[in-house]
């Protein structure tokens, strides 16, 4: 629209910028350099004032007396990036991102100078995805820093990205990254199209974006992985996956992903394959324990006493002799107490929360047994189920399993073993119907892909992982030469 065009009068430009931004901290500086009158506009708390005072202003004051043009300044300004603009909307968008706007009197265009110093935290260790081996650095809230970290892990010209701005009011920058020769163009197009078609008021974090672009927003299971680890993202790019960064968020979005991917940790690649396979199998066992252990206890005590060995039955009866509640109510009560303790420990300061979780669990458990509210055996079972859910690398998947435990316990209390099988069948059917960026969510089980079992429930040696996952449909399927595994005979 013509109303967004920049006039050739710097006074009119200053008045228009003031009216559009309405920011009392917006600063203007006028300079006279021979026959040239210059206007600088910027937000002081977003720019590097040292660069402005000691580099940019002295350079502008030394400009020649003859008339100059923006085109003549583009190649000589002492800043990292310079962009020419004729649009007010672009000027305001860049000012709030730490750029300086420079205009010359009599010229109906200006220059945007990158002198940003956006407040952000320095690089540190990952706080959510803790691992013993491998790189310890994590992403930050600064988008440029995250892209720089990723490029340092993959110093190749194959790393490409698509820049998108979304949010009618937040104007948030989003970067879609992929490896040109490895990523399936259909996957890239799917992500780019879903992000570009978003019409939202604002976007602050990748946790909101991942819910807007996943395949089924009504499913409790996450379909795209969020991670703060650059090494995890780098490995995903080498597999042919697509990565999404959101300005202001330290978490990257990875896809397409499978159900099995949520139980993998990038640390599995840094330890011996036998150890990695054992740990992965342990996580899947923990999934079963977390989902069904308490429900099996409720079903056995309510409907299936004959399934309990006689020696164990005596202990169960003695433990429950003073408990006035049915097993279903008893189990739900303890599960809710565990959830209260877990959520309170997560919201309190670290040291206080850790102490409260340990002390609170012991005190409440002992008091509940002494008061006859529950039995010792159920406390052990519920604690084991809660402990099993902590083994999952993905916090989102762990939370989903925590929630699903409650309806399965209810079904066990109503219909016993039949209720458990009904709940498990419903979950399996639901997972089979899910997809991630249009790809099957339950690979390699359905559709069955024998090749991908080498890095799913277990991890075989690297020399036997010569092909990329079928999920990504990478144009370059070979990760290692076909002869690589043959060169390493088993001793």
Structure description:
With 491 residues, the chain is α+β, with helices and mostly antiparallel strands. Helices cover 43% and strands 12% of the residues. It has 15 helices and 12 strands. The protein has helices at 10-21, 49-61, 70-74, 88-95, 143-153, 185-196, 206-213, 230-238, 273-302, 310-319, 327-347, 350-370, 376-389, 395-415, 417-433; strands at residues 27-33, 36-42, 82-85, 99-104, 110-114, 159-166, 172-179, 225-227, 242-246, 252-255, 435-436, 439-440. The strands form 3 sheets. It has a 5-stranded antiparallel β-sheet with strand order 1-2-4-5-3. The mean pLDDT is 87.
The share of residues in helices is 40-55%
Number of E-state strands: 12
Rg of Cα set: 29 Å
Low-confidence stretches: none
Number of separate helices: 15
Task: Give the neighbour order of strands across the main sheet.
Answer: 1-2-4-5-3
The helix/strand series, from N terminus to C terminus, equals: HEEHHEHEEHEEHHEHEEHHHHHHHEE
Report the portion of residues in β strands: 5-15%
Average pLDDT: 87
Q: Give a quick account of the main beta sheet: strands, pairing sense, barrel closure.
A: 5 strands, antiparallel
- Domain module tally: 3
Shape: elongated
Structural category: alpha+beta
The span between the termini is 73 Å
Keywords: Membrane, Transmembrane, Transmembrane helix
Family: Belongs to the GerABKA family.
InterPro entries: Spore_Ger, UPF0353/GerABKA_families
Protein name: Spore germination protein
